[in-house]
Amino acid sequence: MLNRIILMGRLTRDPELRHTQGGTAVASFSLAVERDFKDQATGEKVTDFIDIVAWRNTAELAERYFRKGRMAVVEGRLQLRDWTDKDGNKRRTAEVVADHMYFADSKPKDDGGGAGSYGGQSYGGGYSAPATGGFQNIDEDDGELPF
């Protein structure tokens, strides 16, 4: 059986980091994801707002580097969760549990350092942000390439 989902959209709010009683990090946020087709009545694309939950390192990195408005790709699995509201009504929620997250846009020019400059870098599953910011320019000319 397979339960795998890949979404690309914009964060509708900054990830909110919390910790369980056992100290496990959990972050929640939502993605605004446009559908591939236009609504026949209005002629506009429909947007779905999808709840995302990230755990442990993925949660900490989401909170540290991703911000409202950033384009992100989230890989994970769909999870349905039953719960009871404060009035005693039974409810069901669908959410995506994020395993990996990627930037899908470049770093904003006016970023004050909150978001990382690690475009295309995968976060999750135990990865950590590179201390150097990823790739470095090489000033030396190595001569001709052998191919």
Descriptive notes:
The chain is mainly β and 147 residues long. The chain has one helix spanning 56-65; strands at residues 5-11, 16-19, 25-38, 45-55, 71-84, 90-103, 122-124. The chain has a single domain, classed as OB fold (Dihydrolipoamide Acetyltransferase, E2P). Helix content is 7%, strand content 46%. It has a five-stranded mixed β-barrel with strand order 1-3-4-6-5. It is globular and about 55 Å long. Residues 112-132 have low confidence and may be disordered.
Low-pLDDT segments, ≥5 res: 112-132
Task: Give the number of domains.
Answer: 1
The largest sheet, given as strand count, sense and whether it forms a barrel, is:
5 strands, mixed, barrel
Label the CATH architecture.
Answer: Beta Barrel
Task: Kindly name the structural category.
Answer: mainly beta
What key attributes describe this structure?
OB fold (Dihydrolipoamide Acetyltransferase, E2P), 147 residues, 7% helix
In short:
With 147 residues, the protein is mainly beta. It has one helix and seven strands.
List the helices and strands and how they pair.
Elements: E1 5-11, E2 16-19, E3 25-38, E4 45-55, H1 56-65, E5 71-84, E6 90-103, E7 122-124
Parallel strand pairs: 4-6
Antiparallel strand pairs: 1-3, 1-5, 2-3, 3-4, 5-6, 6-7
